[in-house]
Amino acid sequence: MLPEKIIYIGVFVSLVGIFWYLKSIIYGNTRPNLVSWFLWMLAPFIAVFLQLKAGAGLSVLPVFMAGFGPLLVIVLFLFKKNAYWKLNTLDIICGLLALLSLILYVVTHNLGISIVFAILSDGLAAIPTLIKSWKFPETENSVTYITGIFGNILGLFIIKNWIFTIYSFGIYNILINIAIVFCIYRKKIFKV
User: Fold this and answer.
1) Structural domain boundaries in the chain
2) pLDDT for res 121
3) Do 129 and 47 form a contact (C-beta atoms < 8 A)?
């Protein structure tokens, strides 16, 4: 286990990643899927609340950052109207299912079940971005996802009480970020 203060390095790296992403949106190189980013804001903030209820400490910061970054993306979107990817039926279905998962997550009043619903919601929200990254990798910027992997790994290193409600969202964040980075780089990796 590393000293808790190491998490601030992860927060700094996450901030660099999100500001890199915001810059890429401003210059028109990245076009985020708003369904994904809205739900990526919501689910982590609820997860932080539940993790704190379960007794987590500073290890919640990477999960908080997983919600804070999308909040900044949404705020930027409000000022730069052409910064979004076009929505389709799949985006709306995934968004509705993710919202349903979030509602179930809030009403269960069981931390373990609630965190599973939060992960499910976030995962459903990721589907449109995964598909977009697979088909149109040039519309995404991998830096924010790579820094998310790093920050969440640091968060796991400082966990004191290894219970499912504290570590699960961090592990999920690492895996979903790896999946998105893979989708962005798969053509370069496999020379397709």
Assistant:
1) 4-190
2) 83
3) no
